Amino acid sequence: MTTVAQLLSSKTDQTFHTIEASASVFDAIKLMAYKQIGALVVTSGEHITGIVTERDYARKIVLHDRSSKETPVGEVMSKAIRYVRLNQTTDECMALMTENRIRHLPVIDGGLLIGMVSIGDLVKNLIAEQQFTITQLEHYIRGNSHAESVREVAAVPM
To answer: Which residues form a coiled coil (predicted)?
Structure first.
């Protein structure tokens, strides 16, 4: 079972991005577009105050006809922060995301933000685990097939 620590260490890009609660939603969306990410952890100084996603933008700015340049991130961010710790498993992450219908989980260690796990990270890990299992099963099957063919050759009279 893969832990969040193992997942983070296997990611090629371990960077995560934050934005101040006082920044404009426009600046948040611009940063997400530039970095090709779907969420930012919102901070106020050193404290984590929320998370803002593309979904927040669509539902709280676009649908309410608000100005993204004039609205601070703090007004539209999700304040209920679901997060995980390094020792939690990827299955626990998947369950938390599914139950809460979210796609991003900040990783907290010792009260500090140290990473971000996305649904894409979890799916990529799941595919890698399944591929590993398939490869192991193929080796096991080939090993037995090879052993049987050796026995068959040994049983043939010369």
So the answer is: none
Quick check: 86 and 3 in contact, CB under 8 A? Answer: yes
- Give the pLDDT score at 144: 59
Rg (CA), the chain: 23
Count: domains in the chain: 1
Per-block mean pLDDT, blocks of 10 residues, the chain (158 long): 92 88 96 95 89 94 94 94 95 96 94 92 91 89 61 47
Q: At 93, list the tokens.
A: 């992450």
In a domain, 148, yes or no: no
Dihedral pair phi/psi, residue 16, rounded to 5°: -135, 160
What is the extent of the structural domain holding 79? Answer: 4-124
CATH number at residue 96: 3.10.580.10
**155 lies in a domain?**
no
156 lies in a domain? no
Q: If we measure between CA atoms, which residue out of 72, 76, 73 comes closest to residue 60? A: 76
